[in-house]
# Entry
Amino acid sequence: MSEREPIGVVGAGWVGLVTAACFAELGHRVVVREIVPEKVESLRRGEIPIHEPGLPELIKKNAERLTFTTDMAELLDGPRLLFVCVQTPPTYSGDADLSAVQRAVGEIGEPDGKALVMKSTVPVGTGRTIHRDAPELAYVACPEFLKEGTAVKDFLEPDRVVVGFDQGDEWAADAVAAAYEPLGAPIVRTDLSSAEMIKLASNAYLATKISFINEIANVCDEVGADVTEVARGMGMDPRIGDRFLNAGLGFGGSCFPKDTQALKILAGNSGYHFQLLNSVIEVNELQKRRVMAKLSKHLDSLVGKRVALLGLAFKPDTDDMREASSLVLASRLEGEGATVVAFDPVAEERARQLLPSVEMAGSAMETLEAADAAVLVTEWPEFAELDWTEVAKAMNNPLLVDGRNFLDPDAVRAAGMTYEAIGRPGLADRSAVS
Ligand code: UGA
# Structure
């Protein structure tokens, strides 16, 4: 392998660590600068602070090429390309909080012959503002399209790599493109602001697709169609595509809720009222609560009832609980007087802090023991392996709402459970016929 360009990464969060480990895997020496000393200490010991499949292995395998430091000077000493991977959480106004970005930019300063490569999701226009204030530092917008749970694969097998830059920074854009070149993906070379908008628009579009199919599911509930069949039939049209058409309890996580809101606010701040995104956000909020009506169909009241939640993370293969549908659902259930008991294979620790009143069980079976109802909130593969005959016996009332349309309805029902899903009302009749 020919000598590859050294790389600097600012921030050892989820994006920073995945970026660093994957570039190390591609043969680059990578220096990661993180401000929290304890985090650096544990990374040096080989302990990875987040749950991301494949990441610990990759960091271990490439340990020789990875350096972790708290010292910005160490980062500025070597690499030309400085990938900024810090968080941009929402503020109370819904704008993106750019304080971590500004801090990183301030610390980097304007060193000669270096480029700031922005991975963090920022409002459109941020790059040009930073560049105007530090014209000597080249600036490239290279947004990430990683999904939690498959981030390593998404990095190493990208659909596209977006490289945004303005006139004068061609050398930096070429260097970034060269770093990604071995991955063989199309490189979208474009201007800075368009690159920033590609990121926000992609997330907002995917969120729109989810809210759209959730509304179709809600109509299916009323008119007797099965949304999974509808999505299958729609998805075969290549103009639509079959991905991100799974109806359920709505989208969560650190990106879709934040980025749809940020794009809406960005548009509003610029004088444009983004109507469609308002609906996408509202539909998602309501979708997290739809389970309540499904439970009420079967239970007169939730007061004193024990409701089991299967899964708490915002999606499988992560311990991330940010904006998880489970947070809203657990609060609604408790608000109606229910006792909530939950099990999640990896998010338990985070969940204990966020949901202190929820009883945490040690296994799925333990959660379901003596429950009056269960809701499948996160589609962890192990829930598909449950013995539903045993579950039906263990529950006080064998009622399950499958909030992700994840299980085989006929099998679950044949085991003696009352099964409800999202947008699949016809299933009861179908299983009665077969
Ligand atoms: C999302 C995007 O998919 C990534 O491309 C992007 O890089 C990332 O945000 C980011 O901006 O950092 P992520 O939030 O990790 O990735 O998770 P997704 O797999 O996109 O799922 C988001 C939410 O949508 C989850 O709550 C999931 O359950 C829900 N979802 C997803 C559905 O309800 N239905 C679907 O069909 C797909």
Remarks:
- The radius of gyration is 24 Å.
- Residues 221 and 423 are 5 Å apart (CA to CA).
- The pocket of uridine-5'-diphosphate-glucuronic acid is lined by residues 121, 144-148, 203, 206, 210, 244-246, 248, 251-253, 255-256, 314-315 (CB under 6 Å).
